Automatic annotation (TrEMBL):
<protein>
    <submittedName>
        <fullName>ABC transporter substrate-binding protein</fullName>
    </submittedName>
</protein>
<dbReference type="GO" id="GO:0042597">
    <property type="term" value="C:periplasmic space"/>
</dbReference>
<comment type="similarity">
    <text>Belongs to the bacterial solute-binding protein 5 family.</text>
</comment>
<dbReference type="Pfam" id="PF00496">
    <property type="entry name" value="SBP_bac_5"/>
</dbReference>
<dbReference type="InterPro" id="IPR030678">
    <property type="entry name" value="Peptide/Ni-bd"/>
</dbReference>
<dbReference type="GO" id="GO:0015833">
    <property type="term" value="P:peptide transport"/>
</dbReference>
<keyword id="KW-0732">Signal</keyword>
<dbReference type="InterPro" id="IPR039424">
    <property type="entry name" value="SBP_5"/>
</dbReference>
<dbReference type="InterPro" id="IPR000914">
    <property type="entry name" value="SBP_5_dom"/>
</dbReference>
<keyword id="KW-0813">Transport</keyword>
<dbReference type="GO" id="GO:1904680">
    <property type="term" value="F:peptide transmembrane transporter activity"/>
</dbReference>
<feature type="domain" description="Solute-binding protein family 5">
    <location>
        <begin position="86"/>
        <end position="432"/>
    </location>
</feature>
<feature type="signal peptide">
    <location>
        <begin position="1"/>
        <end position="23"/>
    </location>
</feature>
<dbReference type="GO" id="GO:0043190">
    <property type="term" value="C:ATP-binding cassette (ABC) transporter complex"/>
</dbReference>
Amino acid sequence: MKMKNWVKKFIIGVCAVMLTACAVQGEGSAAPTATASDEPVSGGTYIVRGAGDPYSFNPDLKVDDWGVVTYQNIFNRLVKQTVSNEVVGDLAESWEFSDDGLTLTFHLHEGVKWHDGEPFSSEDVKWTFDKIRTEGYQSNSFKQLSEITCPDENTVVFHLSEPNSGIVATIGWLGTFIMPKHIYDTPDYDWSTNPANFQPVGTGPFKFVSYEKSVAIRMERNEDYFKGAPYIDELIVSIIPDESTAFQAWQNGEVDDILGKAPSSEIAALKQDPNYNVYQYVATGRVYLSFNLKEGPFADVRVRQAVDMALDRQEILDKAAKGIGSVPETYMTPVFDWAMSETARIPDMDREAAKKLIEEAGYTQDENGYYFTCTLDTFESGNFKDTATVIQAQLKEIGIEVKLNISEIANFQTKVLDNYNFDMAMNSGSQGPDANAIENRIGSNGSLNISKYANPEIDELLKQGIAVSDKAERGEVYKQIQEILKRDLPMVIVTDEIYSYPIKATIHNHPLSQEKSTTLGTNEFSEVWIEQ
């Protein structure tokens, strides 16, 4: 890639760190199962489990976990993030910054077409990012983007008001898929109501065919894909909300890929089975608790500190996750080891000290030994229910009675994220691909800031963190941020995530496999082929 000076050094450094920390490992009974042939086979249908219905097929409008797999196969981004957290080209074949870091130029692949046959150009990129930075859910990530120009149809230039050392990594994340200007730039609809939101047209490896609510999303091979047509004929997202049902469907051969959502208790056996390869990697994802900071018991930081001190995180891993994961020690993901504070550390468990903090906040125990009662909201995903149950029991030990509200993710988002109607909420998610991505969760305008935490000092430090390129200087900024997070505690970290993805040995070129983990997007099936 064409990168210059300070940004080149920064991006290379990040990729090196992330690749080391998040290396993909394939495991089977011994070595990964040998294939019958190294030659890819064309044809077949690949069925992926989807946990729920997407809000729409507008990939940049709002956070939508259930739409991500479809987005990554119908649309493209300028650059994309791999499972190894590397940033590689997608619609852009190269890019470079100006010497002052204020101009970022992308050189686009030529001959790219939209699925309806219309030519793709730099104007589509400009239109998309003009919408994202004003109306998209990632708008807060592009505050420094002041103007976008198109010198020609294959070149697009981002003009920045100040340097942003994390912007390329952010462009490769979510909420940045390029959309067709010729379909969306119309006076008849805004981008939230355009009919194309349910008849999506992209440039990606698969074309949209149909969507039946609560049943399936069907896509077919894009023969004109600019990187070469996929091997498989059809990609289907089969919507199966219940994870036990999905796992059984996968074992029965009704589903080819459950996107890593195998029960933790099954991983050890799958590793020993030669019919599967189990890929494991350390991720920037964390399970964490958010709080209602405006009213209720958790508006007092001492009560939040009590929760932080009450958790036995190893017990949570052992009982809820069957040991899959790691005990967190820091208030930012440790993947960015160059930014970790040695002083702002998660405290050791001390339940007597936790009780004293609650009493200092003005609470006294009732006849049942409880200081107060609260709710914990979460949703059906992975081992969330089991994790919430263990947390419920642990907080009982310090006199907090917790009532669990476990719902579907759409209801969770409406209740918690949209309506701010909760006491305590449990969520998870990637806190990458750059250290500054934590802004989404703790910045005053962060799209995933569930607690609605607002601290001008944090906001200013986040600005500083992307304005410099030297890793040591950046690290000092994020260490200051961690000191404030320890003091204010807008969220309590529960576990760090280690993802385990069992894949059938007959599936080749999976984006999680060692040979493709540095070149394909995380859920991109453009090169998957099925051994016959």
